[in-house]
Amino acid sequence: MLLRVGELAKRTGLTVRTLHHYDDIGLLEPSLRSEAGYRLYRRQDVARLHRIQALRALGMSLADIGSLLDQPSPPLSTVIERQIRLLERQIARQSQLRDRLANLHRQFVSGEEPEMDDWLKTLELMTMYDRYFTPDELDRLPFYQADADRQAKWNALVQEAEALLQKGVSPAASAARDLATRWMAQLERDTAGNPTLLDKLNAMHANEPGVQEQLGIPPQVSEYVLQAFAESKLVVYQRYLSEEEFEFMRERYPQCMPEWPPLMARLRQQMERGTAPEDPAVQRLAREWRDLLHRFAGDDPATHHKIRQANEQEPALQAGTWMDARMKAYLGQAMAHLTTD
User: Fold this and answer.
1) Which residues, including other chains, have CB under 8 Å from residue 81's CB and lie 6 or more apart?
2) Mean pLDDT of 116-136
């Protein structure tokens, strides 16, 4: 039995966009395509999708799942067993939460507590974080530490973005580019410069409407800032490229930009594990990196040289990218081992 992407989305409750994204990043590629180019999924693909969604339910990012599925996959029965254990823990946690709320209610009926709603929202947000981050990761995630100064900075950034949107300011305008640069610098600080934490935070923000509401960062604001951030890089690259090269890159670079965080997260994980740059797992990531470059810049080595030259000479291109010197060196070593294919 073969399912087209729309049928698979309907049967699983996922969106077609999500399945397309899984295909684009190599996480779930359909086994077949029809003569008209439609994606066709078979039983083995559905089994892999179950593993992906089960691991997502365990709080793993797409980057972590991709790395795990590159290894020999555990039997599906083992994955389901893990799901059962996860659900049991969730039930226990929700029961504890209910008991705490019942006790809180008994206290509140005897007096006024104006901050109860704020407390409940904070508790809900903490529960959401727990679904995506381990306790150790939360300890290393400044964004999770809800101090007044940090919250004030984000409130100001969001208000500035909303004002630009209401005025119809183009993402390519200098005001929008400046905002995006400051936004990404703050986000890099608040994720401790760790692309794995960024990838998980992005997944939580995308999948949890409650997080969007509580953080006050609507999807249209996030999209606007990302477009403006792409423009902030393109205006620098333009100085190094021919008109034809720049037009090609301008059309494709913003579309490719969202793929960098999960790819960088997987690279960071391999580096922290001490995996050699020539290891097959790292080489696959280096190949993905190279292929992404070809997608937004074309296949001309001369163009690639100009982009590398810009990256070396323009510090602004590295700002807000989560690429530190150690990762840059590690990636360079991995790229040096790539063979032409």
Assistant:
1) none
2) 68
